[in-house]
TrEMBL record:
UniProt main location, coarse: cytoplasm
Record localization: Cytoplasm
Record text on cofactor binding: Binds 1 divalent metal cation per subunit. Can use either Co(2+) or Zn(2+).
3-dehydroquinate synthase C-terminal domain segment(s): 183-329
GO BP term (any one): aromatic amino acid family biosynthetic process
Ranges for domain 3-dehydroquinate synthase N-terminal: 69-181
Cofactors demanded by this protein: Co(2+); Zn(2+); NAD(+)
Pfam families named among the record's database cross-references: DHQ_synthase (PF01761), DHQS_C (PF24621)
Record keywords, A-Z: Amino-acid biosynthesis, Aromatic amino acid biosynthesis, Cobalt, Cytoplasm, Lyase, Metal-binding, NAD, Nucleotide-binding, Zinc
Protein name in UniProt: 3-dehydroquinate synthase
Classification via NCBIfam families: aroB
Gene: aroB
Keyword Nucleotide-binding among record annotations: yes
C-alpha cells in the first residue's frame, strides 16, 4: 500500500509519501528533489539506534555526503540551548545553502530540525521523516517549526515547509504504547474538526490503544485521512491567518497542562486529549453542540487509552493565567476552537473565564 498526498501551496508545494518500507528507499525518494550533496541527519539516541544506520546507508548509496546529529530526547530539551548542537555540526560540516537537514524522529526532533533549517544560512532544505504516530499525522506536515521558552510551548519558531514528508508505517512497531496512544489524540482531533467519516471509522474499531490491535488497512486509512485533513487545511491557510487555527483544537488548555507540569509528566497527545474533553464541555455549556456528541468524543478518547481528567495538583487559577501566554491569544482574549458537529468546529474568543473555570472544576 502506497499513497502520495500533495500539500498545495503558493510556493514550495510538496508531497507526503506514505509507504511501508520507505525508510530503506529514502535516498531514492529524495534524489528527484535536486538537493545539494550535503545532508545532516538529526535524530535522538533511541530512534537513531533503531533506524539511523538504515537511513545513512540509503542516503549514502545515492551519492549524498552524510553527517549525523543526535539530540537528547524529551520536551525539556526542546530549547535554543539544545539547538546549538545542530548549528555547531552544520558549521563543522560546512553545510551550504543547497544542503539539507533530515529530521528522523518524533514531533520534537521534527520541530527542532525544521527550525534549525529555517535559520541556518537564512533557510536551507529540510525533509521530514517522522517515526511516531503523532509526528506522522501532525507535526511533520505544515511547516510549523520551533522550540519552547520556559514560559510557554513553541513560543520561538518559524514557518518553514519541508521539501518532502516520508512516512514509513513499519517504524511504528518500535513505538512505545504510550506514544502510540498520544498520537491517536491528533487522529481523533481530525475526526472532530474536519473528517466526520474518519471519526465514524474510529468508532467502529474494536480498539485504538495499541497498534497490534489495529488492522494494517485501518492504520493506512488513519494515516491517509489524517495527513489529507492536515494537507487540505494547510493548503487553504499556510500561515495560520484564519482557518488553520482549527488544528489547535484541544491544544489551548492542552498546552497549559503541558507547561504547568513542566513538560515532564504529560505527553503532548495526552494533554491534547484532556484539552479536547475540556473544549467539548465548553461547547456543550455554550450550546454549540449536544451532550450526545460530547459523549461520543469522550468514548473515543477513552478507547484510545488517553487521560480525560486534569492531573492532580494543578491549580485552576494557574491554568487561566497560563492560557494568556498562549500564541493564540489576541487582544488579551483566549481563542478557543469549539466543535459544533462531528467534522465541524468554530473559532471564538467569547468564552468567559467563569465557563472555563466551571468546566475545569469538573475535570479533576
Amino acid at each position: 500500500m502506497e499513497s502520495v498526498i500533495r500539500v498545495n501551496l503558493e510556493q514550495m508545494s510538496y508531497d507526503i509519501a506514505i509507504a511501508p518500507g520507505s525508510l530503506e528507499k529514502l535516498g531514492e525518494l529524495i534524489t528527484p528533489l535536486q538537493l545539494g550533496q550535503k545532508v545532516l541527519i538529526v535524530s535522538n539516541p533511541e530512534i537513531f539506534h533503531h533506524y539511523g544506520q538504515r537511513v545513512i546507508t540509503s542516503v549514502e548509496k545515492t551519492g549524498f555526503e552524510v553527517a549525523c546529529c543526535t539530540l537528547p530526547a524529551g520536551e525539556p530539551h526542546k530549547t535554543l540551548e539544545t539547538l546549538q548542537k545542530v548549528y555547531d555540526l552544520a558549521l563543522e560540516h560546512r553545510l551550504e545553502r543547497s544542503a539539507t537537514m533530515i529530521a528522523l524522529g518524533g514531533g520534537i526532533v521534527g520541530d527542532m530540525t525544521g527550525f534549525a533549517a529555517s535559520t541556518w544560512l537564512r533557510g536551507i532544505n529540510v525533509v521530514q521523516v517522522p517515526t511516531t504516530l503523532l509526528a506522522m499525522v501532525d507535526a511533520s506536515i505544515g511547516g510549523k517549526t520551533g522550540v519552547n521558552h520556559p514560559q510557554g510551548k513553541n513560543l520561538i519558531g518559524a514557518f518553514h515547509q519541508p521539501r518532502k514528508v516520508i512516512i514509513d508505517p513499519l517504524v511504528l512497531k518500535t513505538l512505545p504504547e504510550r506514544e502510540f496512544r498520544a498520537g491517536m489524540a491528533e487522529v481523533i482531533k481530525y475526526g472532530v474538526i474536519w473528517d466526520g467519516e474518519l471519526f465514524t471509522h474510529l468508532e467502529q474499531a474494536q480498539r485504538l490503544d495499541q497498534m497490534q490491535f489495529i488492522e494494517p488497512s485501518l492504520l493506512q486509512e488513519i494515516l491517509q485521512r489524517s495527513c489529507q485533513s492536515k494537507a487540505e487545511v494547510v493548503s487553504k491557510d499556510e500561515k495560520e491567518l484564519g482557518l488553520r487555527a482549527i488544528l489547535n483544537y484541544g491544544h489551548t488548555i492542552g498546552h497549559a497542562v503541558e507547561s504547568l507540569t513542566g513538560y515532564t509528566t504529560v505527553l503532548h497527545g495526552e494533554a491534547v486529549g484532556i484539552g479536547m474533553v475540556a473544549a467539548s464541555r465548553i461547547a456543550v455549556k455554550l450550546g454549540l453542540w449536544g451532550e450526545d456528541c460530547d459523549r461520543r468524543q469522550l468514548a473515543l478518547i477513552e478507547k484510545a487509552g488517553l487521560p480525560t481528567k486534569l492531573p492532580t495538583g494543578l491549580n485552576i487559577d494557574d491554568i487561566l493565567t497560563s492560557l494568556l501566554t498562549d500564541k493564540k491569544v489576541k487582544n488579551k482574549k483566549v481563542r478557543f476552537i469549539l466543535p459544533t458537529e462531528i467534522g465541524v468546529v468554530t473559532i471564538t474568543d467569547q468564552v468567559s473565564s467563569e465557563v472555563i473555570r466551571e468546566v475545569l472544576q469538573g475535570m479533576f
